[in-house]
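Researcher: Structure prediction, please.
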Amino acid sequence: MSVKIPRLVIAGLSGDSGKTVVSLSLINSLRRKGYSVSVFKKGPDYIDAAWLGTAAGTVCRNLDTYMVTPEIVFATFFRNASKTDISIIEGNRGIFDGKDLIGTHSTSGLAGLLQAPVVLVINVSKVTRTVAAIISGCISFDPNVRIAGVILNKVAGKRHQKIITESIEKYCGIPVLGAVPKLGEDASLIPGRHLGLITPAEFNSSHEFSDLLTEIGEKYLDIEKLVEIAGTASLLDDTGESGEKEIPANVKIGYFKDSIFTFYYPENLEALERSGAELVPVSSTDDKHLPDIDGLYIGGGFPETQADRLMSNHSMMMSVREASQNGMPIYAECGGLIYLSRSIIWNDNNYPMAGIFPIDLKMNLKPAGHGYAEVLIDKDNPFFDTGDTVRGHEFHYSSLESSSTAPNSCMAVETGAGIGGGRDGLLLKNTLATYTHIHADGVAGWAPAFVNKALAYKKNINGRVTGSSRVAV
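Model: Predicted structure follows.
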């Protein structure tokens, strides 16, 4: 059965083109008009996805054909987009930028996979007629990508807007769907820092910001025309996906959920639930010790920015360390790795961490690892099968202090930086910490293995379960 799913890809010529602010303004305006909106972020970025989800009042799904197969990416989109009136997909970097010469894993490739019309957001600062030449080139560059319109960003004034609009209509034959004036530096809208924008969890002016975005959308975007173009997207064939059968919860897995640790793909949490886990939120700063759980998941985030708060909650660090020593399965990514280290050095200050791994980390001025990653699992561990190749991504400014030597690890880095020396995946008993972020839809065995190990811990250490219940890996 074919289904009508109105949808738009919001793309740009480069990073910092204004895609995120335009996307957020459009989403807020659509919701103000009564539309239900599903939102998606092309690529692995957590922060943009969090902002998109906040604007839409729902979960944002990352669509990444490097970490996850195109078939699963399409199914994820269809399953979520078919429930709403309209879907907005924000691209990343330049529209044709991918992993290689032919643009593999690009925004344009995703638009083709989803058969979605594209709206280009273009920074027109200090340029006029040349914009039409650039757009014309984009239209002819890949005939399989339908560029249906343009939104101008950082327009200097009415005359500037008129010249550019007339040039685009004359030479490109597509409409200008919005013209956003210069609104000041991006930081005045969404404050940033070393890893980009701050997260919604750290932003204290969410209501005022939402009102500002809605005002931008209603004042400077042609919402009706954008909805009309979204409605011209071709019908999509129903994937026939009935959803995976969920196993009744038989273990409890905690996960740090607070203003510091926010980087979790929703699919990772959902995969744990489907595999038989009850998820228990834990605050790394406010809770004094771990609750009654059988496993712990520490996602990425910004522990360095609130290291003093983490350090002052010594009882939680002691609780995590004791759980690790007792064999509880603990899986930590990036910021979670920092939390499990001995210390982090930032701004000339040394902050003690949980100390599970005897390493000291330092924050650098430039990224120590940034981009897609691929690792080979070369040692037995609780979460992955030996011999498997796992894809993910990394973005971190921290690295080993020169005096630190990485302890036992289970990942050989084939692409990326890892912890250093061609290694990643620090391993101690049932605790694994890695700089590589994974997506559960691309690593099918991770969640069942996590739950199995948590169940074994619950049975053998806590002695609270009898019988032979087990999740199949």
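Model: The chain has two domains: 2-237, 251-462.
Researcher: Thanks, that helps.
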